[in-house]
Specification:
Number of helices: 4
Order of helices and strands: HHHEEHEE
Number of strands: 4
GO molecular function: ATP hydrolysis activity; DNA binding; ligase activity
Strand content: 5-15%
Radius of gyration: 24 Å
Protein name: DNA ligase-associated DEXH box helicase
Largest sheet: 2 strands, antiparallel
Organism: Neisseria gonorrhoeae
InterPro entries: ATP-dep_Helicase, Lhr_WH_dom
Helix content: 25-40%
Domain Helicase Lhr-like winged helix: 8-136
Distance between the termini: 28 Å
Length: 137
């Protein structure tokens, strides 16, 4: 079994935004929930609050631009999305990037000299590009 990895903060940020898209949440409750997941069991409250702040403001570089605010606290202290476009954008773009195996695509000719689909295929040929393996299966 591979060793347990600590939780990635970018994945946590997606979870925070996803929770706000579902329904408003209280920081204390979400922090308690997140720490029940093994990769986040040792997550400090400071790191959690920093992630929530990052989702809310876009971080120190974008804090001054209102359009990058994704979540805000309401009068009851619950975090909620700033507008429906945030919810829509999240649902269209959520996910983590997993590196896929890339395969080379080459232009080859048959051993008979033509480009037809019959006969043995020669090796090599001019490289056309690359494609992720998942699209070939």
């Amino acid at each position: 079994t591979p060793p347990l990895r600590l939780g990635a903060l970018d994945v946590l940020a997606q979870h925070v935004l996803g929770c706000a898209c579902g329904k408003p949440f209280l920081s204390d409750e979400l922090y308690d929930e997140v720490r029940t997941a093994a990769p986040y069991a040792s997550l400090s409250r400071t790191d959690f609050d920093d992630v929530v702040d990052f989702v809310a403001t876009g971080g120190y570089a974008l804090k001054t631009y209102e359009r990058f605010a994704r979540i805000k606290q309401d009068k009851q202290g619950r975090w909620r999305v700033t507008n429906p476009k945030v919810r829509q954008s999240y649902r269209l773009n959520v996910g983590t990037i997993v590196e896929e195996t890339m395969l080379k695509v080459r232009l080859v000719r048959s051993r008979a000299g033509g480009t037809g689909s019959t006969g043995a295929i020669a090796r090599g040929g001019r490289m056309l590009g690359e494609i992720e393996e998942v699209f070939i299966e």
